[in-house]
């Protein structure tokens, strides 16, 4: 008997869980906007050197006048980084070529640049330039609900104030602090969902919740297209978090967390509230404090210990899980953002490309749902990574002039990395025990943040060898795919609440010496 049995007694996946999961998932509609915002706010519009007193007067019909001031690059388009030292009026009537202008003297853009406002009215490139581990530790100390509410508020305030940034440095500071709150929202929302739903509903809930993020990618394209100004886009995708902040006070704190932190009476009140909302008011009399603590006797005893990030690595099974998850999280994020944050390279309208990249997630995640339900987490995780790697590798051999084929393969690869993300959030929440779940999720998801930071930097390798970025992205996904098969399966298995639960499932009859040493250390903590 455990907490999962109490959940079944108060209605299983009832009215409360439906409302709870829906309210927690709605902010996911704008989480894609936070993660992929730079595609539009930092998009690089077409530009050329500013020509004082002349460029400002140019319009689309008079664009040919630029030929007198701006040389052509290798693709016969106006150079972005140089201009003629003196006006070359004779070039206006000449047929564009390199031979008739190759000997003319040029200089750098001394007065800055003029930007094309067709695709972006304003971006930080044209205007301004002229996280998670900490929040996870806090949520283990102050609770999932409290940190989630604070994360909503921080994201709403700092995200909105980002639009007022007067310089690039200020912009980066605001985005950094906003990114911390994004991690707080995602990780605490996942835990609050997982810890209030029955075992059999976890797969369906996890997948459906991820569809909010998927639809949010398409919303981002619509918002960015309609506004085309980075300041207005920031306000549009951050202001709604004030609404999420106000309704988040309705959430119920995780009863598991409350019991494990010596607040069993509060946990009982939340259980009674859930029972009433689910139409099981009679259970408020049957489930007493004694019943609750008897169901979670081992967990209550374990709660007297102090857990840190080092406990993720002290025992064999926890160490294996943590090391494997670090690689899987890094590679999933690395490949995902390597594809998703460079939409301009595909030569397709950036807004249309964002919609396509979002739409492909629907079939990909439906496939993931079926695989998660019937094949399990481990096979799904490994397969999604290996398939995405194979697609990335395949794109290396497609000629650059076959743009449609290259784009289709990139979209397919992005779909499978999205499915991998869906799986890893669910998988990680099921692998780590309640006493250290948030710490564990924060620890391994930090690797995802590192992966997302490293992904754009790898694109620089394109200058050495065009295929090199794809080789790096694909190689990372292959490695992580095979490592994912080393993780224990969690399909239809109740959530572990203590580290002992995790170790016993791995080796129920013969615990390793390191487990016994760890137990003695925790016993001393309890005695003191």
Automatic annotation (TrEMBL):
<dbReference type="GO" id="GO:0009925">
    <property type="term" value="C:basal plasma membrane"/>
</dbReference>
<feature type="transmembrane region" description="Helical">
    <location>
        <begin position="147"/>
        <end position="167"/>
    </location>
</feature>
<dbReference type="Pfam" id="PF00083">
    <property type="entry name" value="Sugar_tr"/>
</dbReference>
<feature type="transmembrane region" description="Helical">
    <location>
        <begin position="467"/>
        <end position="487"/>
    </location>
</feature>
<feature type="transmembrane region" description="Helical">
    <location>
        <begin position="379"/>
        <end position="398"/>
    </location>
</feature>
<protein>
    <recommendedName>
        <fullName>Solute carrier family 22 member 6</fullName>
    </recommendedName>
</protein>
<dbReference type="InterPro" id="IPR036259">
    <property type="entry name" value="MFS_trans_sf"/>
</dbReference>
<dbReference type="InterPro" id="IPR005828">
    <property type="entry name" value="MFS_sugar_transport-like"/>
</dbReference>
<feature type="transmembrane region" description="Helical">
    <location>
        <begin position="233"/>
        <end position="251"/>
    </location>
</feature>
<feature type="transmembrane region" description="Helical">
    <location>
        <begin position="321"/>
        <end position="339"/>
    </location>
</feature>
<keyword id="KW-1133">Transmembrane helix</keyword>
<dbReference type="InterPro" id="IPR020846">
    <property type="entry name" value="MFS_dom"/>
</dbReference>
<feature type="domain" description="Major facilitator superfamily (MFS) profile">
    <location>
        <begin position="59"/>
        <end position="492"/>
    </location>
</feature>
<keyword id="KW-0812">Transmembrane</keyword>
<feature type="transmembrane region" description="Helical">
    <location>
        <begin position="440"/>
        <end position="461"/>
    </location>
</feature>
<feature type="transmembrane region" description="Helical">
    <location>
        <begin position="404"/>
        <end position="428"/>
    </location>
</feature>
<dbReference type="GO" id="GO:0022857">
    <property type="term" value="F:transmembrane transporter activity"/>
</dbReference>
<feature type="transmembrane region" description="Helical">
    <location>
        <begin position="351"/>
        <end position="372"/>
    </location>
</feature>
<keyword id="KW-0472">Membrane</keyword>
<feature type="transmembrane region" description="Helical">
    <location>
        <begin position="204"/>
        <end position="227"/>
    </location>
</feature>
